[in-house]
Amino acid sequence: xxxxxxxxxxxxxxxxxxxxxxxxxxxxxxxxxxxxxxxxxxxxxxxxxxxxxxxxxxxxxxxxxxxxxxxxxxxxxxxxxxxxxxxxxxxxxxxxxxxxxxxxxxxxxx
Length: 110
Prior knowledge:
Elements: H1 2-14, H2 18-25, H3 29-37, H4 44-53, H5 58-62, H6 72-82
């Protein structure tokens, strides 16, 4: 949704309507509507074409997105997996280790 909202914002700033942007990218205006609303994801090649048509760097459309590494918990877990972070020790009693008990149990019904 973030990229689509940024496309809409940049398109409005540039004073370009959806029909003209669609023609520049090579898609239908309905596809532009889907990109902007977040119903469809935009491909890298279409994003490049949109960035060129809107005279903006691709980074402008994806700037501000939070990656998994921006989350401190994900970063800690990644360093632990690599063996470079602090040792967290075993889980407290009553708490299963990661991944245990997550798979559903399938039983044959009679």
